[in-house]
Design brief:
With 114 residues, the chain is mainly beta. The chain is 4% helix and 46% strand. The chain has one domain. Strands 5-4-3-1-2-6-7-8 form an eight-stranded mixed beta sheet, with no helix packed on it. The chain is elongated.
Length: 114
């Protein structure tokens, strides 16, 4: 079991899905519990941030955390390839070229195991 990122599909999915699904992926560049969005226009956006050192006075008795996220901002992600994302009983594969969605398909369990 490894790290993953969250993905928020704001674009239209190929099938109706219930609200409130938390989508995860292991195919995005960060793999550090970051958040990505696919905009309604199909652009891949990374919820970027900078890391800052936590002052020693704000750390716990074990000296943690050393860093925290700061300055959250959106950055277009110039990604080419496919991103499989899943949540609940649903799985989709999104294809991108230079950060722009070119195709989005639902993946069935049979296809996922091939």
């Amino acid at each position: 079991m490894g790290m993953y990122d969250y993905i928020i599909p704001e674009c239209k999915l190929p099938v109706e899905v219930p609200d409130g699904i938390e989508w995860q992926t292991k195919d995005t560049p960060a793999q550090f519990l970051d958040t990505y969005r696919i905009t309604p226009e199909g652009q891949l956006i990374h919820g970027a941030y900078t890391l800052e050192t936590v002052p020693k006075s704000e750390r716990d008795t074990h000296g943690l955390p050393l860093f925290r996220r700061a300055n959250p901002h959106d950055e277009p992600c110039d990604f080419t390839g496919s991103i499989m994302f899943y949540g609940g009983d649903y799985k989709f594969c999104a294809f991108f070229e230079n950060g722009q969605l070119t195709r989005l398909v639902q993946v069935t369990e049979a296809e996922a195991t091939e």
